[in-house]
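In this supplementary section we document a worked example of the pipeline. Step one takes a protein sequence of length 200 as its only input; no multiple sequence alignment statistics are reported here. Step two produces a three-dimensional model, which step three serialises into structure tokens for compact storage. The input and output of this example are shown verbatim.
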Amino acid sequence: MRIVVIGAAGNVGSRVVAEALRRGHQVTALTADDVDATDTEEVARLIAGHDAGVGATRPTPGNEQSAPGVTRSLLDAHAAAGVRFLMVGGAGSLRVPDAPDRLVADDPRWVPAEIADLARTGAEQLAVCREHGGADWTYVTPSALMEPGLRTGDYAVGHDQLLVDDAGRSYVSMEDMAVAVVDEIEQPAHRRTRFTVASA
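The serialised model returned by step three reads:
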């Protein structure tokens, strides 16, 4: 398959590139130096002819308000190019298991105050995806804690609620997050919806 990754220099994007190459896919890796993710026409031109695109962009601190607009531009570009789109989002958009009326972003047990604004962008990105009428999208959400780690290839899948293990931990390695993204590209199971993953 031909896969394009936008945000390929980031923690998740670089691992998605590596995972896709490991499986023999053709990968186009685009960084901020290659394309402005808000330039819908340019993105559409660069992704045309691919089977799937991955958005692994992340706003810089203090620029959190840009995330919904970037997501909308990427959705528009993928719709125009007829390319399936997977957006890697944030756990802040998930519901808290013991308080399902509360977002993870609003719960200090899971999100420190200093990154709460960034965490809330996940809910805004997801809303943009759900409101978009033209794109074939999937929103992929990590656990509360996502760090560099082992590629086990073994992970749990959820939907709108934060996945927490028996020890009270919500964790996924960046490597297993990349595995989940490429698995979804190869075997689509969550079209026009969101899913979340946790290392098993």
